Automatic annotation (TrEMBL):
Catalyzes the reversible phosphorylytic cleavage of uridine to uracil and ribose-1-phosphate which can then be utilized as carbon and energy sources or in the rescue of pyrimidine bases for nucleotide synthesis. Shows broad substrate specificity and can also accept deoxyuridine and other analogous compounds. Phosphate binds at R100, R144, I145, G146, T147. Its EC number is 2.4.2.3. Keywords: Disulfide bond, Glycosyltransferase, Transferase. The keyword Transferase applies. CDD domains: UP_hUPP-like (cd17763). It comes from Peromyscus maniculatus bairdii. GO terms for molecular function: uridine phosphorylase activity. Disulfide bonds join C95-C102. One of its GO terms (biological process) is CMP catabolic process. This is Uridine phosphorylase. GO terms for cellular component: cytosol. It comes from the Eukaryota.
């Protein structure tokens, strides 16, 4: 397997301490500057049709997650938490002209849906990162707030990812570029993860841990489930695989973290992945939580991130 990390693909970490000084959002594409216009097709935005610096120049926090409703609810929640004018209920979808993704802005917080899986989030990230670049944003923190399957931990636990790993438990994301395999690092910002963990400690009854997150290309066979339309392995093989994953430090499984970590790292974004676990995969495959429990679990990463953002903005007394 080719393992290529050319100089132009190495992470750009311009500042020693990410919390000090200005940190720009980088695009790593020599062709972009020469383009007369950049149409962000899947976001229904563009450099000629929209004044991106005016619309987005003040963005400091970007939160992404699979579901449009979750990301709208998060934007409305943040609106209230930041005590912005109005009740936020009528918040507008900036990407209403497309039904691929939805995007909401409340103060310095942007909330965007990315759909399910690596190809879907990858397209959104290309256009989001270009948007942040065109808008001349700096010091942006990006956080994926998602759901996942836990391994050996109680459902409802929140996992803050230190490193995203692939299905072989390796900290890498393999992107096919033309007919080459380009391997990119999936390290996330350790200082940010530690800050999020300490923030979680201030919320009562809030089980949180730091661990590796495994990112797969599929929800069923790809995550070792026995309940898909296809299954070509035994219960014993499934448990052996999940136990090996646990031994390698994996505490949860989802479907976007490797490409998220790789792209954000390369483009100078301080990034974190915070996912609640919906079940313990050593116990079951089916998600049979009641609607209310599911909603409450999905709110956990939102609550943590809202507290974190408020602290970063100096709106909380504790930090
Ligand atoms: O909760 P979200 O953000 O959708 O993410 C997780 O849920 C989906 C599968 O149900 C996958 O996209 C997985 O990564
Ligand atoms: O088991 C799970 C639950 C949520 N999301 C996943 O990708 N896997």
């Amino acid at each position: 397997m080719a393992s290529i990390l050319p100089a132009s693909n190495r992470p750009m970490r311009p500042d020693k301490n990410a919390y000090e000084g200005k940190r720009s959002v980088y695009v790593k594409n020599p062709y972009l500057d020469a383009m007369d216009e950049d149409i962000l097709y899947h976001l229904d935005l563009g450099t000629k049709t929209h004044n991106l610096p005016a619309m987005f120049g003040d963005v400091k926090f970007v939160c992404v997650g699979g579901s449009p409703n979750r990301m709208k609810a998060f934007a409305q929640f943040m609106h209230k938490e930041l005590q912005l004018e109005g009740d936020g209920e009528d918040i507008e979808d900036i990407c209403a002209g497309t039904d691929r993704y939805c995007m909401f802005k409340t103060g310095p917080v942007l909330s965007i849906s990315h759909g399910m899986g690596i190809p879907s989030i990858s397209i959104m990230l290309h256009e989001l990162i270009k948007l942040l670049h065109h808008a001349r944003c700096c010091d942006v923190t990006i956080i994926r707030i998602g759901t996942s399957g836990g391994i050996g931990i109680a459902p409802g636990s929140v996992v803050i990812t230190d490193t995203a790993v692939d299905s072989f438990f390796k900290p890498r994301f393999e992107q096919i570029v033309l007919d080459n395999v380009v391997t990119r690092s999936t390290e996330l910002d350790k200082e940010l993860a530690a800050d999020l963990l300490s923030c979680s400690r201030e919320i009562p009854n809030f089980p949180t841990l730091i661990g590796h997150t495994m990112c797969t290309y599929d929800f069923y066979e790809g995550q070792g489930r026995l309940d898909g339309a296809l299954c070509s392995f035994s219960q014993e093989k499934k448990l052996d695989y999940l136990r090996r994953a646990h031994k390698a430090g994996v505490r949860n499984i989802e479907m976007e973290s490797t490409v998220f970590a790789a792209m954000c790292g390369l483009c100078g974004l301080r990034a974190a992945v915070v996912c609640v676990t919906l079940l313990d995969r050593l116990e079951s495959d089916q998600i049979n939580l009641s609607h209310d429990v599911l909603v409450e679990y999905q709110q956990r990463p939102q609550l943590l991130i809202s507290n974190f953002i408020k602290k970063q903005l100096g709106l909380c007394s504790q930090m």
